[in-house]
Write a structure and sequence with these properties.
- The strands form three sheets. Strands 2-8-7-6-5-3-4 form a seven-stranded mixed sheet, with helices on both faces. The protein has a four-stranded antiparallel sheet with strand order 9-10-13-12, covered by helices on one side. Strands 1-11 form a two-stranded parallel sheet.
- The protein folds into two domains: 136 residues, Aspartate Aminotransferase, domain 1; 231 residues, Aspartate Aminotransferase, domain 2 (3-Layer(aba) Sandwich).
- Strand 6, helix 9 and strand 7 form a beta-alpha-beta unit.
- The protein has 15 helices and 13 strands.
- Helix 2 packs antiparallel against helix 12, helix 3 runs parallel beside helix 12 and helix 13 runs parallel beside helix 15.
- The chain has 392 residues and is an alpha/beta fold.
- Bound molecules: pyridoxal-5'-phosphate (PLP).
- Pyridoxal-5'-phosphate binds next to helix 4.
Length: 392
């Protein structure tokens, strides 16, 4: 399982462990722990009765609801079978020759760009700055940004968890605007960071920043905020100039009838949507404080979303993830193979406090176990070198 490119592999882990999936506690996928809303579940159940019919196409009620949630005109909204479909559709539409990806970040941007034959310039922010880009760094990258047709950023960033510095983001957008480079801002986790409604999602969104409308494309994953990764809905906010060309290229019926009904119901559950950011923030702050106290956790990166990135004191993220899975039935995201991260990094979702408690206790136990094994190994090695090892 070490070469997984995504978290959320509950079925695979359950099969490997020979247990039912619902006996696992999944911290590897970052979905809203308050959901799915009972309204979403009820709407999805009702829609099962309609699966013998084609879905609404175009899916106007969902488009209206998504546009209302995001505070943008519905003519500029495209819907996808999850946000990831919209990443691929964007690249297919723009057919960029050269793409810049500012990371470490979600790997599907690079995958989509390469799949469509683009050359990819992958730029990593320095680990000393918790992998965050500063305004100065972005200014220094100006020639590379200007040489690209499309630039991807993720805000808040996955897997690191924090929002982009607003000056760095806006500088990037101005550089790209001057150069005619399109900017793709993935705000799939933004709704976890703000109090909604009242335009608050928009206040932090790039959609509301001055002069950004011409060449900036914004992605939201409703899958995550509505806790429906198995059903999947994403929404793309396109600049006016791109919308007319993009929308006819979205395949018909790409959002199925159950996902449409569930997402409309979820977006109507304003109470749950409003409750999410403060609940996530409270749970995150409590989790950070306790994770920081675990021996073997060197750093918890600053975060604004519903997941945290941990740097371990020593390489061994794979071992830690493996023991959590085997010994505790807990899934976390091992970032060993994640481009730009490495063997010291893990990502964990923020879940409800009782679950976070289980994770924190299990992680402390696993790290203590690894330290004890290493100590025992070191003593055996020392003894062996003296010719008095246990094995002799
Ligand atoms: C930053 C980011 N964007 C998009 C997606 C894809 O979202 P969806 O499940 O709606 O396709 C993910 C999924 O993990 C993600 O982390």
């Amino acid at each position: 399982m070490s070469d997984d490119i995504h978290g959320g592999k509950i079925r695979e882990a359950a099969t490997a462990l020979g247990i039912p999936g619902d006996e696992l506690l999944d911290f590897s996928a970052n979905v809203n722990f308050l959901g799915p809303s009972p309204r979403v579940v009820a709407a999805a159940r009702r829609a099962v009765g309609e699966m013998g019919w084609y879905p609404l196409d175009p899916p106007d009620p969902l488009r209206r609801a998504a546009a209302g949630f995001l505070g943008v005109p519905q003519e500029r909204v495209a819907l996808g079978n999850g946000a990831s479909e919209l990443i691929f559709l964007t690249v297919a539409h723009l057919r960029p020759r050269r793409v810049v990806v500012l990371g470490p970040t979600f790997t599907e941007y690079e995958r989509a760009a390469r799949a469509w034959g683009a050359e990819v310039d992958l730029v990593f922010a320095p680990e000393e700055r918790d992998f965050a880009f500063s305004e100065e760094h972005i200014e220094a990258l100006a020639p590379r940004l200007a040489a690209a047709d499309l630039v991807f950023i993720c805000d808040p960033n996955n897997p690191t968890g924090d929002l982009w510095d607003r000056r760095a983001r806006d500088t990037l957008i101005s550089i790209c605007a001057r150069a005619g480079t399109a900017v793709f801002v993935d705000e799939s986790f933004l709704a976890f960071t703000e109090v909604w409604p009242g335009g608050a999602v928009l206040r932090r969104s790039v959609s509301s920043s001055e002069g950004s409308s011409e060449q900036v494309i914004v992605l939201h994953s409703l899958t995550k905020i509505l806790t429906m990764p198995g059903l999947r809905v994403g929404a793309l906010v396109l600049p006016e100039a791109l919308a007319d060309g993009f929308l006819p290229r979205v395949p018909p019926w790409n959002v199925n009838c159950i996902a449409q009904a569930a997402a409309v119901a979820g977006l109507e559950d304003v109470e749950l949507l409003e409750r999410t950011p403060p609940a996530v923030t409270e749970a995150r702050i409590a989790a950070i404080a306790r994770l920081r106290g675990i021996p073997g956790v060197a750093r918890v990166l600053p975060a604004a979303a519903n997941f945290l990135c941990l740097r371990l004191a020593a390489p061994g993220a794979r071992e830690v993830a493996g023991r959590l899975r085997q010994q505790h039935g807990i899934l976390v995201r091992d970032l060993t193979d994640f481009p730009g991260m490495g063997a010291r990094f893990l990502r964990v979702a923020v879940r409800e406090p009782a679950d976070n408690d289980r994770l924190i206790k299990a992680l402390a136990e696993v790290l203590a176990g690894i330290a004890a094994d290493a100590f025992a190994g070191a003593s055996v090695a020392t003894d062996c070198s003296l010719g008095i090892g246990a094995a002799s």
